[in-house]
């Protein structure tokens, strides 16, 4: 529903109607529109995390990149909904604060993947938090581009290049 119509006119009653519930049922379950949107985003993020699987380190980074692109293609409405919610954070500070928690968790997970990958390879990662933010922002931008163009070949090519380039800096000299 959000993916089809956007958030500009979205109210909780729309969610109730879409689910076939009485008009004010969603309002009884969620204290605010922002709380509902956070739950939608959390659900999407959790299903994505499950698709990545129980991997860490370099394998976790590769799985994250791979699944971010594949899940977006497989579930474009979920990808579009997540991007709409992320964009809404720019104008809704309450929603932004709540969504920041989800983004912080994802960034922390990626940061840990970068640290583990460095340990696995005996290499040094200078700024794992910056690397995590850069990777997440790159993937979000890539999927936003794909949502606008639906160019599957370009998405696959970019995914492949990103996987090829996902390396750590060379070891520091002793």
Q: Which characteristics define this entry?
A:
BetI_C, 9 helices, mainly alpha, Tet_transcr_reg_TetR-rel_C_sf, 174 residues, Tetracycline Repressor, domain 2, single chain, globular, BetI-type transcriptional repressor C-terminal domain-containing protein
Protein topology:
Blueprint: H1 2-5, H2 12-18, H3 25-29, H4 33-52, H5 57-74, H6 76-88, H7 93-121, H8 128-149, H9 152-165
Helix pairs in contact: 4-5, 4-6, 4-7, 5-6, 5-7, 5-8, 5-9, 6-8, 7-8, 8-9
Tell me what the structure shows.
With 174 residues, the chain is mainly α. The chain has one domain: Tetracycline Repressor, domain 2 (Orthogonal Bundle), CATH 1.10.357.10. The protein contains nine helices and no strands. Helix 4 crosses helix 5, helix 6 packs across helix 8 (128-149) and helix 7 (93-121) packs across helix 8 (128-149). It is globular and about 60 Å long. The relative contact order is 0.12.
